[in-house]
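Figure 2 data, in text form.
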Amino acid sequence: MPDDTSPFDDESTGSRESKVEYRLVHRSARPNDSVVTFGDVPFGDGDVTAIAGPCAVESAEQIETSAAIVAQHGGHVLRGGAFKPRTSPHSFQGIGLEGVEMMRRAADAHDLAMVTEVMRPGHVEVMAPNVDAFQLGARNMQNFDLLREVGRTSTPALLKRGFGTTVREWLLAAEYILDAGNDRVVLCERGIRTFEDSTRFTLDLAGAARAKRKTHLPVVVDPSHATGDPELVPAMARAAVAADIDGVMLETHPDPTSARSDGDQALRPESFGRAMERLRDVANACDRRLER
C-alpha cells in the first residue's frame, strides 16, 4: 500500500497513483478551488466561514438561544447534533428527528444555514428536506454505505476526519461521495489521536493545510473537538485562518455547565463573542473577510 504522501507525488505530470486514488478529489481533476454552499453560505471563496453551536440539540429553547448567540456574533452556520454517537451507550444519544426539526426552525429564525450529523443510510432521505448539509462524523468517516448514500443526493456534506486516520484515508472517503455523484463536499479536520495526552486530540493543522493545497475541496477545522479545552480553541481557530483554511467550527453553549454533551469544551457566549472578534481581526490582517 502506498504511504500517505505518495498520491501527491509528481504533480507536474500527475502520477498514476494520484489519478487512480484521487481521480475526483485531487486538484489535477479540477485546478480551481471548488466553492460549496450550505444554503446560501459559501465555503472556499477565499473568505472565512464560521460554523458554531452546541454539541447536541437538547431542547427547542436551548437550540433557539444558541442560534441567537451564533447570529449575534457573526456566525454563518448553526451546528448541533440530533443523533449523537457516543463512546458509552449510557451517555446522552440525542433526541433524533425532532431535534433536526428544532434546528431547522432555530436556524431559519436567525437567518443561518444549518448542519447536523447523519448516522445511518436510512436517515438520509428523511433528513434531507430539513438540512442544508449533512455532517459525516469522525466515527462514520469510513462508513462506506453512508458515504455512498449521501453521495447520491445533492445535499452538501461536511466530512470529518477520523481521529485514527491518515490524510490519504480522509481524502479517499471524500472520493466515495464524489464517485457517487455529489461533489459538494467540505473537509473538516477535527484532531487525531497521537501519543500526546495534554489535549483531547492533536489538531493536525499541517494536514488540513496539505489537504487544502492538494485538493480542490474547501477545508475547515474544528478546534473544539481537537483540543477539548475552551482556553485553547480561539487561538487554534486564529491559526487556521492564518493558514488559509476556509473556515472554523466552534462549539458554544448558553450554559456549558448544564450541557448534556461535551460541555467542558464549549465556549460560553461571552467567550464566543470575544473569539469571533479576534478571529475577525486575523481575517482582516490576512486580507480575508469574516462578515458576509
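Caption note: The CA atoms of residues 15 and 164 lie 27 Å apart.
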